[in-house]
Amino acid sequence: MYSESNDPMGNKMSGTEDIGNYTYNYDPDPESCEASQVFGNGSTLFDVIYYVLFCLGLFGNVIVLWVLVHHTKKRTMTDVFLLNLVLSDLLTAVSLPAWVHSSQSLPSCKVVTGIYQLGFYSGTFFVTLMSVDRYFAIVRAVAAMRTRRLRYGVIASITIWVISMIIATPQVIFAQLEEEDEDNNSFHCHPVYPEDTYQSWKMGRNFTENTVALFICLPVMIFCYVKILIVVSKSRNSKRDKAIKLIFTVVCLFVLCWVPYNIVVFLQTLQLMEFIDPCQAQKAISSAMPFAEIIALSHCCINPVIYAFIGEKFRKTLTKVLSKYFSRNYRSAGVSISHTTDTRDSSNTPL
Questions:
Q1: Which residues, at least 6 apart from 210, have a Cβ–Cβ distance to it below 8 Å?
Q2: Whose CA is closest to 60, among 31, 82, 32, 36?
Q3: In-domain check, residue 263
Q4: What positions does the domain G-protein coupled receptors family 1 profile occupy (predicted)?
């Protein structure tokens, strides 16, 4: 069996691997191929960053979830997609602390791996689905009256979860515990692929990640938002400039968060195929991967800001809820506060 390092995405490579009658040494000279990096997975800095992302992701998504579940009377397709996106981001966020501390049992290792992988893929799909929803609402407004119904949103969401589970299953199956330090009785939780099919499984996983993010979701998002941009730019709505800025924000943040990670994964695939020098590639990938992972994982903290807090309807609903809460507290102290909020003709999303 061939194992990988203990990080959420399981991307770092080192050691040797036997394929057929050949032995591929990914680290032919440990000293010369050792990555010269100041920080890396397992360092105190990265442990702190994981906890910060966990806290921010948990805080933002729990607030959005609370408002959607308890203070949204009439739910729409957009609400369904936003709710599922929040659940996806919560799965990603709650799995982060588990990667800082070593798992002590195989079941917990597999559960954490499954939670992370499920949140990882479903989150990317639901961000794309939100873009498609906005496309139909703005560009295809007439057709949207027939297609943007609650039951269709539920069906699409269930389909996304099923697809994400299927994609995540191999990582759960291969997740294993390996002893890291006998003295401290600590273990690594990471994918352990069979030696004879290691390269196939590894390349398949890399190809799946690149396909989902770069070749499916990103082109769909760009298409939807370009069409939206064309329609919005021709309108005389007073909120046109704000909408255009938000379009660029959504696309740019997705690109900034996911493209660097996918580029590193693609380079890793080229290393596996020996299209580039394994030793030099290992240095670059080992140094770049932890930072690329952190940037990608930060997207679960950014989503609530983009799709909820910036959304006019959500902000008004949250303001109304908070004003009622504080008004109740102030009245109990002898102070009366009145606040009126109109939630008409607004959306849960930036557009």
A1: 262, 265, 266, 269
A2: 82
A3: yes
A4: 60-307
Task: Report the distance separating Cα 304 and Cα 82, nearest Å.
Answer: 9
Please classify residue 322 by burial: count the beta carbons closer than 10 Å to its beta carbon, then call 0-12 exposed, 13-18 middle and 19+ buried. Answer: exposed
Residue (of 224, 306, 310) closest to 257 by Cα position:
306
Residue 164 burial by Cβ neighbours in a 10 Å radius (0-12, 13-18, 19+) = buried
Average pLDDT over residues 72-78: 78
Q: Is residue 148 part of a domain?
A: yes
- Please give the tally of structural domains in the chain: 1
Answer for the pair 232, 243: CB distance below 8 angstroms, yes or no: yes
Domain carrying residue 59: 2-332
The one-letter amino acid at 196: D
Mean pLDDT of 129-133: 90
CA 177 to chain CA mean position, Å? 24
Query: Which range among 62-66, 117-121, 249-253 has the greatest average pLDDT?
Result: 117-121
Query: Three-class SS of residue 257?
Result: helix
Tokens representing 329? 């507290």
Please indicate, yes or no, if residue 181 is contained in any of the structural domains: yes
> How many Cα atoms sit within 13 Å of 274 on the Cβ side?
4
Q: How confident is the model at residue 14 (pLDDT cuts 50, 70, 90)?
A: very low
Domain membership flag for residue 55 = yes
Closest CA to 271 of 16, 28, 13: 13
Return the bridge partners of 192, or none.
3
- H or E segment to which residue 129 belongs: helix 106-138
Contact 291, 282 (CB under 8 A): no
